[in-house]
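Researcher: Next sequence.
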Amino acid sequence: MKKVKVGLLPLYVKLYDEYLIWMRPRIEAFHKEITDWLSECGLEVLTSSPCRLEEEFRSAIRNFENNGAEVLITLHLAYSPSLQ
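Model: Next structure:
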């Protein structure tokens, strides 16, 4: 049976890279953990670096579309209260 191809879109906040740089290795490790877990569940996972800016999102989505992703999964890697 053919594996379902998914695009895993990791969402992050640019502000965290500016003020909480120490968090970046932790979120990248979590991103890898989730990517590996989805693969172990039998999915073919396409992913990107954590997206923070519009062009990063556009590039990731273009890559998913060009590579035949059938499903988009968002992975929220940061918590940011509204109006921040």
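Model: The chain has a mean pLDDT of 92. Residues 15 and 21 are 9 Å apart (CA to CA).
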